[in-house]
Every structure is written in C-alpha cells, then in structure tokens.
Amino acid sequence: MNWIFGKSKIKKISTSELKNVYLPDKKENYFLDVRTRAEFSGQSIPGFINIPLQTLSEHLSKIPKDKELVVICQSGMRSTLACKLLTRAGYEHVINVRGGMNRWF
C-alpha cells in the first residue's frame, strides 16, 4: 500500500555500489535483468538472471521473496517499472540499479 501514497520501498544504487557492495555478496541477493533476451545475450553481468519486463508478471513464482532483489535494465527505466511491479506483488526488498547497463561500463 505504501506505493499508493508515494512512499517507495525501492532502494536505488549506483553501478559502483553494485560492483563493490552487492555483487561480492551474491548469497544474500537475487540479481534480475529485465532487458530483452537479445539485449541480455549481447552483454550481461555474470550472476544476473534474465526475465524480460514484458514477461515478468508471468514468472514471479521463479523469484524468491526472501532475498534482496537487485534489478537492472539498459538505462534504468524498465528496471524502475519492474521494481514497482515487484513491490506491488509483495516483494519487500527491491533495489534498482540507476543508469543500468549504460553506466556499467
């Protein structure tokens, strides 16, 4: 319900934080890339699972609710939408990577 009133549970991190804080501790997190399969095949970060945004709602059962979810896309737009969808679906610890893959390299 918090998302209705503008109180977001979605944390935002930089790609630098992703590299230095989140990726080294992979056990505590679930890494989700919501780009298309073609984008993911072309370039991706090891450890990320690809579930395109267009099919995300159909695959929620594959995503654990007991881990922090770190979500990335190409620029941050689709991952923001994915984070909102996940939050509405009951995921409590959702993290959006600002700037996405555009800022990764």
Automatic annotation (TrEMBL):
Domain (Rhodanese) ranges: 25-104
Domain of life the protein comes from: Bacteria
SMART domains per UniProt: RHOD
UniProt xrefs under Gene3D superfamilies: Rhodanese-like domain
InterPro entries (alphabetical): GlpE_sulfurtransferase, Rhodanese-like_dom, Rhodanese-like_dom_sf
UniProt xrefs under Pfam families: Rhodanese
Protein name per Swiss-Prot or TrEMBL: Rhodanese-like domain-containing protein
